[in-house]
Design a protein that fits this description.
The protein has seven helices and two strands; from the N terminus they run H-H-H-H-E-E-H-H-H. It has about 160 residues and is mainly alpha-helical. It has one domain: Arc Repressor Mutant, subunit A (Orthogonal Bundle). A hairpin with a 7-residue loop joins strand 1 and strand 2. The protein is elongated. The protein starts with a helix and ends in a 14-residue tail after the last helix. The relative contact order is 0.14.
């Protein structure tokens, strides 16, 4: 069993690592905001819509890993800025199909990448075994913190 001093030093090293990760995420979101005047989650939404023209709101929410009301609120902002066009689907008049406007595409083209953000992109580059270990270890930390699982649906850009 490690001594309290060894555990404390290890905990402080990991805390520094978390600060570096969150600093990188915050820095990326600040660059995006400065470059295009939108938050990182909104730019990610634009990139998903650009990649899947005609996507529905529910599909967009799943792609962004957020709740549908969160995606809907994001879309209201994007529509108000003239970046996304939402049209009723011909096959189902209750469903909306989302497409970028020319302005939305131009904004996306000028946004610093990656559109989904630096953390999801970095996680996807990890080897599968490293990603699995990280997932298990973070789950242990989440359990220790007694975190409300609903907070997982909040985009990092909104934290």
């Amino acid at each position: 069993m490690p001594s309290p001093d060894v555990k404390h030093e290890a905990a402080m090293r990991v805390l520094l690592q978390f600060r570096m990760v969150f600093g990188a995420v915050r820095s990326h979101f600040q660059k995006v905001e400065q470059a295009v005047g939108l938050g990182g989650a909104q730019v990610w939404a634009l990139s998903v819509i650009a990649g899947q023209p005609g996507i529905g709101v529910g599909q967009l929410a799943r792609a962004l890993n957020v709740r549908q009301p969160t995606a809907s609120n994001m879309l209201k902002t994007l529509q108000a800025r003239g970046l996304v066009l939402a049209q009723k689907a011909e096959h189902d008049r209750r469903a909306l199909q989302l497409n970028l406007t020319a302005e939305g595409q131009a904004l996306l083209d000028n946004a610093p990448g990656p559109p989904m953000g630096v953390l999801p992109m970095a996680l996807m580059t990890l080897p599968p075994d490293a990603l699995q270990r990280l997932e298990q270890d973070l789950q242990a930390l989440i359990t220790t913190l007694a975190v409300d699982p609903r907070t997982a649906q909040t985009p990092l850009a909104d934290l």
